[in-house]
């Protein structure tokens, strides 16, 4: 396993080196140019080490299969000679794949302007510059890399992907809501807040995902101004509610670990309910501010936003007026909430982790497991939020993907993180499932 891990780590470092240094240098220069030979080298290297990673991951999966399913024959099957041969085959396969990419790229006739809308050289952006019919080459790239999809196929992929994510979010969070509501063992304030986090997660996804799923089946995707404003309100309301709930969960963990003797007094049910009400009110104020900014924008067409859903940043691009002040308000509102909340949360968890020195080994293990789950959720949610909302009105191609991740991806990951790393929740779910089986019998 570690033999293959060595080559995976090597491929990882090489894969990043093919693109990252050039990106870093280009970010500091006004004019970004790359020679034809450098471009071809980058295509080859990126595909070589990318394909190498794929093959090594397959070998690691095969290694785990033999180790677990055929333990007595493991040392015979996966001996050093066999592993070395498998790695050589992976290198050869990667070389064949990347050579095929270069062969396709070298056949393309370019007649200018040779400007690619991409961070690095790859066959997909290069095909857009070719002054010839690229249908056959497209088919070859699909059969080789599986990287290019025709528009109808792409829409089907979007439909299936978002539908699965959305259904997973609904099922996972509904399971947590049901488990917390029916289990007497999960009556602590932490699970009280987790209940509302699991409530805001599907609501956040529901404000975005159904519309994306429906739009992926339509040729012409339109949304009325009223629907757009409602989407802005709901997305910011439930997104902000999630932020406030995460802060409350951090406060709860701080009191539980740093003030254990006063925990039940400080975090009583009345206080927790009051804090949740404050979170709802704060979310409402924040989202109303977004609506106020959106309604004050003058639009004069064409009203086409380059985004998966309505948000204030893509709407600002359609405004036929100076948006400098509104941009500042957006950063000071959404950006400040995201950044300050993230700093407060991380600072509180640093204090909590520092205080664990005085606890027993069992207490440290339990508290550490809970806090790590919370920290993972915080980073996954706040990272994209800060990237989107704490910068001027500059957009990047990756913005849409990041926005979809924190509105649809993170709500799906939250139930997985909290259930897989929390023994109490897993035990409560098992008891709930056992009761269901008994009642069915």
From the structure above, extract its key features.
2 domains; receptor; Rhopdopsin 7-helix transmembrane proteins; single chain; 17 helices; globular; 441 residues; olfaction; Olfact_rcpt; mainly alpha
Report on this structure.
The chain has 441 residues and is mostly helical. The protein folds into two domains: 2-148, Rhodopsin 7-helix transmembrane proteins (Rhopdopsin 7-helix transmembrane proteins); 152-440, Up-down Bundle (Rhopdopsin 7-helix transmembrane proteins), CATH 1.20.1070. It is 76% helix and 0% strand. It contains 17 helices and no strands. The protein has helices spanning 2-28, 36-69, 74-77, 80-106, 123-127, 135-144, 151-182, 189-206, 209-215, 225-258, 263-266, 269-295, 312-316, 324-355, 361-389, 399-420, 423-440. It is a multi-pass membrane protein. Its main location: membrane. Keywords: G-protein coupled receptor, Membrane, Olfaction, Receptor, Sensory transduction, Signal, Transducer, Transmembrane, Transmembrane helix. Residues 1-16 form the signal peptide.
């Amino acid at each position: 396993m570690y033999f293959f891990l060595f080559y995976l780590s090597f491929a990882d470092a090489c894969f990043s080196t093919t693109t990252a240094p050039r990106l870093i240098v280009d970010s500091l220069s006004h004019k970004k140019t790359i020679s034809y030979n450098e471009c071809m080298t980058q295509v080859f290297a990126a595909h070589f080490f990318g394909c190498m990673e794929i093959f090594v991951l397959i070998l690691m999966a095969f290694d785990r299969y033999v180790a677990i399913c055929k333990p007595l024959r493991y040392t015979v099957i996966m001996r050093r000679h066999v592993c070395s041969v498998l790695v050589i085959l992976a290198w050869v396969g990667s070389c064949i794949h990347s050579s095929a990419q270069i062969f396709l790229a070298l056949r393309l006739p370019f007649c200018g302007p040779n400007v690619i809308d991409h961070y690095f050289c790859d066959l997909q952006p290069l095909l857009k510059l070719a002054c010839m019919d690229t249908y056959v080459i497209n088919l070859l790239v699909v059969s080789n890399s599986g990287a290019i999809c025709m528009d109808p196929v792409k829409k089907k992929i979007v439909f299936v992907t978002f539908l699965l994510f959305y259904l997973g979010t609904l099922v996972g969070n509904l399971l947590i809501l049901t488990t917390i509501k029916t289990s007497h063992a999960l009556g602590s304030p932490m699970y009280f807040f987790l209940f509302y986090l699991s409530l805001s997660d599907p609501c956040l996804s529901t404000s975005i995902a159904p519309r994306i799923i429906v739009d992926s089946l339509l040729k012409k995707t339109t949304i009325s101004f009223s629907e757009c404003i409602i989407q802005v309100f709901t997305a910011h309301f439930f997104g902000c509610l999630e932020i406030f709930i995460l802060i409350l969960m951090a406060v709860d963990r701080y009191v539980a670990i740093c003030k254990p003797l006063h925990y039940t007094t400080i975090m009583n049910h009345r206080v927790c309910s009051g804090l949740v009400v404050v979170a709802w009110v704060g979310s409402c104020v924040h989202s109303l501010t977004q609506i106020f900014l959106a309604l004050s924008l003058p639009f004069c067409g064409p009203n086409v936003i380059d985004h998966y859903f309505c948000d204030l940043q893509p709407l600002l691009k359609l405004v036929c007026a100076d948006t400098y002040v509104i941009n500042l308000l957006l950063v000071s509102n959404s950006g400040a909430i995201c950044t300050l909340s993230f700093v407060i949360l991380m600072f509180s968890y640093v204090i909590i982790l520092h205080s664990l020195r005085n606890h027993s080994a069992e207490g440290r293990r339990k508290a550490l497991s809970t806090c790590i789950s919370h920290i993972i959720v915080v980073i996954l949610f706040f990272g994209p939020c800060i990237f989107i909302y704490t910068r001027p009105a500059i957009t990047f191609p990756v913005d849409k993907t990041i926005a979809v991740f924190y509105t649809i991806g993170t709500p799906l990951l939250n139930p997985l993180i909290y259930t897989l790393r929390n023994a109490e929740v897993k035990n409560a779910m098992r008891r709930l499932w056992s009761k269901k089986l008994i009642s069915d019998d």
